[in-house]
């Protein structure tokens, strides 16, 4: 693994290796002293062209707990049309001696361009690009699912296992969601069965070629699929306005048809975990009752995010990836 | 004055014959040609250059109905001189310069400036296209009559880059240009359906997370405009048609007797949206690259005459507008120097279509000249006709090397691609603008100095 650009680039073996490494990292995070010396002397740059405090501090914590030096380069406002170009920013970072670049960008494909245009030679980690991919989110979701569905929650993490046969329902704004795309790719690779549920306006043309099922009816999907995990995607309220595209008539109607309310929560199989990549719109796509229920893994996902990002940085920078010796 | 004796060229891929070019016209053909050329006995002031064309094909000089020369305003991307030089190397003797310059070519003054720059450059005939609306804003008709009456004698009007989407304005434009035998060339793109669009909407855009440009946004405008043209009895031309549905609509309109013509670009004949998977902005173009099914449909449409012409939509951009994120990149690709080769690859060398060199001459010379009302271009290669012709080596292959192209920009989507057929020589008004595949800089400088 040279870069982590798309969850779809990962083989099953590579994905399982990352999850297993995550398990090792997570174990160290319950110790009193959380810091490991693995990346001492290396510099990780967090290059964020888009606001995302949560993802940035997660990557920052991950790098620091591996003893790397971290430079946060917040380029918010450097929109695609003004200011310094991505190329010049990349050249600047390379000149400063970055050993890895974590990039969040509003333009789909920007991490791909950074990694493949010859501007820099360091590993690139995609921390979310436009409507394309958010691979570490998919990995932390998969890690969380594996822990609960394969490892049995406490203790075992299902090390060495994939998610064969797991049934996952993903609900919400698939069209604009890099989380949905990454999850469909990775969960498919790991052997899970994915069902996307959304109003037709929030599904992309071409979704029928994705390796998953698609439904417009959340209640029917809960009843028919009997999911092991249900993931609610964030829906931006402004998507209902005509300026925002007019994708649905009102937040109320969206919530009625696609929100995870108490009734739907009760209809889920007992073991089904409730997931959300955050930040949540309580009362829109997810009710407080569901978000705060014991089966919710939403807070745990955040903790697992740090461990996953430690694993990714470790595998990219400290080597030790037996599956592909390209570094 | 140099004259040219072209030996044993295959005219339109047919019989081999000699052609003698003198005084700007084809002075003699066949066995008469050699006899007509003066002997090199020192007694004549005419220098005769003999060209062995026994492996070459002669076509009428190519005519491009859709070229962005960028001047005035974006001389960093292309100038009239650099663009027409590239055109000559590509076998063109006439290009139509699109109106989306800065300032926009929406007045007689700007079109005359472009026309004069073309005259001065001397590489090919430049026919300026006039904007349909003031500033391409789609609000108010530009002074179309003034542009038609100017020295540039504009006959093609287009807001290319922008769609004339207001149906009433489009109707008025279609009607108004009848007064001077003009034509409106529509950039068919419904703006609301394509807000923020970056690539063809389909399987690939769904995977890449790039905002889609649906085929229906093109087809809906074409359907509307052919019906408008029928209603008001005007002719209409459709720029860079790109979808299978558009081909069907044009086929239907022609069967109904509507006076519509349509063009396809070389890149839409060979490239698909799959090329975008690497997020390389060299493949960002408007209209976007479509699917393999669309490519098959536009090829079939070109072969059966539904699509009348190939036009390059040559759209040069400086490196900084392509060396960036896909979303930030400019739309467009260069095409003048690769157009003929791409058409040969997609159509002539393609056993799926009955498309020969005569069809190349029809779709890249005669028909575009007719649509643009350029009387001296696209003529048959016969005695007395203007000496606008191109000699092509059909067996040659070449590899596209962007820095080696003559256009001032390097945004070709065909970099490192091997293409068939090469332009060996281009003659415009009897003068060689290209010989041995290279533009004749020295000749132009001499001509300039002597003028």
UniProtKB/TrEMBL annotation, chain A:
Aspartate/ornithine carbamoyltransferase Asp/Orn-binding domain: residues covered: 165-316
Annotated positions binding L-aspartate: 82, 178, 234
Catalytic activity reported: carbamoyl phosphate + L-aspartate = N-carbamoyl-L-aspartate + phosphate + H(+)
GO molecular function: aspartate carbamoyltransferase activity
Binding residue positions for carbamoyl phosphate: 54-55, 104, 134, 137, 278-279
Domain of life: Bacteria
EC numbers on record: 2.1.3.2
Domain Aspartate/ornithine carbamoyltransferase carbamoyl-P binding stretches: 2-146
A Pfam family the protein falls into: OTCace_N
Pathway(s) this gene product operates in, as recorded in its UniProt entry: Pyrimidine metabolism; UMP biosynthesis via de novo pathway; (S)-dihydroorotate from bicarbonate: step 2/3
SUPFAM superfamilies named in the record: Aspartate/ornithine carbamoyltransferase
Family: Belongs to the aspartate/ornithine carbamoyltransferase superfamily. ATCase family.
Biological function: Catalyzes the condensation of carbamoyl phosphate and aspartate to form carbamoyl aspartate and inorganic phosphate, the committed step in the de novo pyrimidine nucleotide biosynthesis pathway.
Protein name, as recorded: Aspartate carbamoyltransferase
Native species: Occultella glacieicola
Protein's gene: pyrB
TrEMBL record, chain B:
Binding-site residues, substrate: 68-70, 100, 286, 317
Dihydroorotase catalytic domain span: 58-243
Pathway the protein contributes to: Pyrimidine metabolism; UMP biosynthesis via de novo pathway; (S)-dihydroorotate from bicarbonate: step 3/3
Gene3D superfamilies named among the record's database cross-references: Metal-dependent hydrolases, Urease, subunit C, domain 1
Listed EC numbers: 3.5.2.3
UniProt-recorded Gene Ontology molecular function terms: dihydroorotase activity
Residues the entry annotates as binding Zn(2+) 1: 66, 68, 160, 313
Record has Zinc as a keyword: yes
EC category: hydrolase
UniProt keyword annotations, A-Z: Hydrolase, Metal-binding, Pyrimidine biosynthesis, Zinc
Active site: 313
The protein's required cofactors: Zn(2+)
Record HAMAP family: PyrC_classI_B
Main function: Catalyzes the reversible cyclization of carbamoyl aspartate to dihydroorotate.
UniProt record similarity statement: Belongs to the metallo-dependent hydrolases superfamily. DHOase family. Class I DHOase subfamily.
The protein, known as: Dihydroorotase
Organism the protein comes from: Occultella glacieicola
Gene from which the chain derives: pyrC
